Fold this protein.
Amino acid sequence: MPVSLALVVSEILSDIETMGADKALQLISWRFEGLKIIRQHFNDIDFDYYNTGGYELLNNNAPLEQLGYINGLLYTITNATETFVQKDNCINDFGFAGITHVLENRFEGALHSGKLLRALLQKVISMDVQVMFGTELKSFEENNDEIALHTSDKRTLFTQQLVFCTNAFSKSLLPEIAVVPARGQVLLTEPIPGLKLNGVFHYDEGFYYFRNLNDRILLGGARNTSIETEYTLDAFTTLPIQQALEDFLSKVVLPGQRVAIQQRWAGIMAMGPDKSPVLKQLTERTFCSVRLSGMGVALAPMMGKMLAEMV
Ligand SMILES: Cc1cc2nc3c(=O)[nH]c(=O)nc-3n(C[C@H](O)[C@H](O)[C@H](O)COP(=O)(O)OP(=O)(O)OC[C@H]3O[C@@H](n4cnc5c(N)ncnc54)[C@H](O)[C@@H]3O)c2cc1C
């Protein structure tokens, strides 16, 4: 699935309010560095990386008033005086409705996370890492010398150290960590003749995101329209959220057009009281990097780097 760095002014402002500026900036910096690390290790072409530019669609002025402040904060990360620039002409260029302003971020990029995962697997297998697909860890016991891992197929494996990267699926193994699953639903349209969109787009503090995939639109989000039902590990789509996505598509993105939907799917993210990931040593031999708050593709390289230093 295509993924982006997802820098959104209204979301950054909301993060600063809930987490404070230092923590919010730290997260952005890790994501920014993460994308750089991915691009150092893999060829852009292998995971369909395009520096498409990103756009935030606004229907109020509030983020514009904070633009100078946010650009000032981001200077230390992007090294640009204007990371975000007002580009209201995009409303007509792309044909949006119900939007009053557009902000552009030229550092935004999109990648194909399935292809990235494939490239990563190829790399680790070539380094002799053994990946045990379909093996579920049911429980574990740590003693002085080692950790015993009990799997669902009734085997016991032994290890010196254990790192949990189980994200939203961490509750049963690590009940002490505050993490809740959050379902993200997506749809993909049929090809749209004459589609004008090009780039990655965000709306409503990042709760909606869409991009063109050649001449199709991939649109996801709307979790905020039914927040309670989406705190689930069930990775399937639901009518209310898919309806909210289709409403947004026909009212804002492609006003007045009826477009057929080719595919719908859902994935599971991990959330907590704020957006900080939980990266820490749990006991002498166990560690975790979980709760990646829907930013795990961009955050993963820095989490991995910090974990490697910790273990
Ligand atoms: C719709 C959607 C859009 C997204 N968009 C973006 C984006 O634009 N940018 C971005 O950076 N991120 C995005 N994300 C978030 C990103 O996909 C996740 O943060 C990332 O996949 C987390 O990676 P992870 O490896 O930590 O966890 P996961 O990908 O959830 O992997 C956890 C793994 O642990 C395994 N596991 C769990 N329990 C056990 C067990 N007991 N034993 C063995 N294995 C176990 C699972 O099978 C799974 O393979 C998006 C997510 C969704 C759903």
Summary: The CA atoms of residues 176 and 277 lie 14 Å apart. The mean pLDDT is 94. The first helix runs from residue 9 to 19. The pocket of flavin-adenine dinucleotide is lined by residues 3-4, 6, 136-137, 165-169, 173, 184, 186, 220, 267-269, 292, 294-298 (CB under 6 Å).
